Amino acid sequence: MFANRKNSIQFEIIRYLLTVLLLLFFFFPIVYSFLTSWKQPIDAFSIPPKWLFSPTIENYIMVLRRADFTKVYINSLVVTVLSTALAVIPGVLAGYALSRFRFRSKEGVANWILSTRMGPAIGIVLPVFIFAKTVHLLDSLGILIALYTIFNLSYVVWMMRSFFDEIPVELDEAAQVDGASLLQVIIQVVFPLAAPGLVATSIFCVIMTWNEFLWAFMLTNRNAKTLPVMMNGFITEQGILWGQLSAASVMVVLPIFVFALIIQKNLVRGMTFGAVKA
Amino acid sequence: MTAVSEARVAGAHPKGRRRRHRTHYLLLAPVIIILLPIGVFPLLYVLRLSLFEANVNKAYLGDIFVGLNNYRDFFLDAYTWRTLLTSLIFTVSTVALELVVGLGAALLLQKESRFMSFVRSLILLPLVMTPVVVGVLWRMMYQSEFGIINYFLTVLGFEKVSFLAEPGVALPALIVVSLWEYAPFMILIMLAGLKSLPEEPLEAAAIDGASDWQMLRYIVLPMLKPVILIGVLIRSIDAFKVLDLMFVTTRGGPGSITETISLRIYYTAFRFFQMGYAATLTVILIIVINIAVIFLIKVFRSSQAELAS
């Protein structure tokens, strides 16, 4: 690759300087927020900003003491885990069908499945809001779980299809020749090989569901609020309590960061519906 | 890939084929049944609603059928056209910037070393960060009195700027946030593309004495085209729909300078309660987005074909 050619020292210096600049732009805001979460209110506003300060855990305690924080956190956990789990099973089966079988309407079906998630969120929320209102499901975890399951489903199908495509079909056929049923083939032969892909796909669903704002904002009020909705309310309410705002931010994004680093290898693939592989 | 498709053809003997014919429907059925309510029903509902006047704020007398009046209103509605333009400006500038930063950064970071792979891990974090939290974070940094960015500006001898409140600055400020959040996507996708490039053409070019610039321009970029196209399309579709960012930072202000089409639909429906007109705008947005999606699917398919060959 041409970038690995031997280059002059000046070139290398410029290269590292630019890299540090990139790192500053993309990583500094996160560091800044993290530092702020450990500052006393007085330090958070000091100009020039204090880089060395005596850290306090008070912000975290204040956030955790809020009556709704734990509840909202649990809401987010429940909604995320359930909607991911519910999407995975039918999604895997359909992904397998799209990967292995040939039928006339196949690409049409696959594209339709993809198009259900590409539409504008605001377009779906209007009818869903009216529907939820009529059947008295507004502000319930149920409506969120249902909506996110459907949303995750199309994603699981596309991702798993791309992972299944990488497993040689000869394996299926050999097992079938040996007398295995289709279900046995899927569960015992293909599934173990696709397991890493399934883990990555599920983690992606978790990240997207955890982060979703608009639908949760529209469909919930008090009981079924999720973390992004709470954070949105938090700004107007506590506009100047940067320490607490940052502490809450850290607690919201930390699990996501861990997950993202776990599936780092599959991140590109996950974000392009399986089209680009790293 | 070719081995797989050959095996498929070989395995398609009459008996096996018939048996398989039913199973794939069985496997697909659950997904199709679950997706129908969201893939078809909302669309039909919105289409129908777009033909009605359904202003649920006044003395609401039920939906009144108005035919295509809402669509006529849309064509004359300069305010909405401006929000479409805002979305377009936002999309074009953020995606263009992401593309430049993405390609540049990928070229910088592609080298295999421990430091570079560490940098690659850190840089992807904004991409997965909860968008509302991204908004919170940048609101804090953009703050006019105590914000860290204004501090750096004063250190460098500039005036303080109210980033999110000044008409000329608000939209560019949001474009920077979007760049921060999504350029990592372009970086990662370009890195993947660079990694999958075959070595031979580059080696041959190097032997022929091509400069780095020539290699980039005539070999690397053309070969990256499918990857770049996928990245640009996915990001354009997302950027055009953007709502979270404005919702958390500016709410469309100052005035309506950062009001995107999604935000406009939201306000039409849930502030002015004009459900029918909101549905009409939704239909328009869906049409615009679908044009991009059709392109995207075409690119998906051709890039798959390229990978298979």
Write a structural description.
The complex is a heterodimer of chains A (278) and B (309). Chain A is mainly alpha-helical. Chain A contains 13 helices and no strands. Chain A has helices at residues 9-36, 41-44, 58-65, 67-100, 106-118, 121-134, 141-164, 169-177, 182-211, 214-219, 227-237, 242-262, 267-271. Chain A is globular, with a radius of gyration of 23 Å. Chain B has 309 residues and is mainly α. Chain B has one domain: MetI-like fold (Orthogonal Bundle), CATH 1.10.3720.10. Helix content of chain B is 76%, strand content 1%. Chain B has 15 helices and two strands. The longest helix of chain B is centred in the C-terminal third of the chain and has 34 residues, at 275-308. At the A-B interface, helix 1, helix 4, helix 5, helix 6 and helix 7 of A face helix 1, helix 2, helix 3, helix 5 and helix 6 of B.
Protein structure class of chain A? mainly alpha
Task: Return residue spans of chain B where pLDDT drops below 50 for at least 5 consecutive residues.
Answer: 1-18
Number of domains of chain B: 1
Query: Do you know the CATH topology of chain B?
Result: MetI-like fold
CATH topology of the largest domain in chain A: MetI-like fold
Task: Give the % helix of chain A.
Answer: over 70%
Q: Which structural class best describes the helix and strand composition of chain B?
A: mainly alpha
Low-confidence stretches of chain A: none
How far is it from the N-terminal to the C-terminal residue of chain B, by CA? 8 Å
- Share of residues in helices of chain B: over 70%
Determine the mean pLDDT of chain B.
Answer: 85
| CATH class bucket of the largest domain in chain A | Mainly Alpha
Rounded to the nearest angstrom, the radius of gyration of chain A is: 23 Å
State the separation between the terminal residues of chain A, measured CA to CA: 16 Å
How many structural units, i.e. domains of chain A? 2
Q: Report on the biggest sheet of chain B.
A: 2 strands, antiparallel
Mean pLDDT of chain A: 88
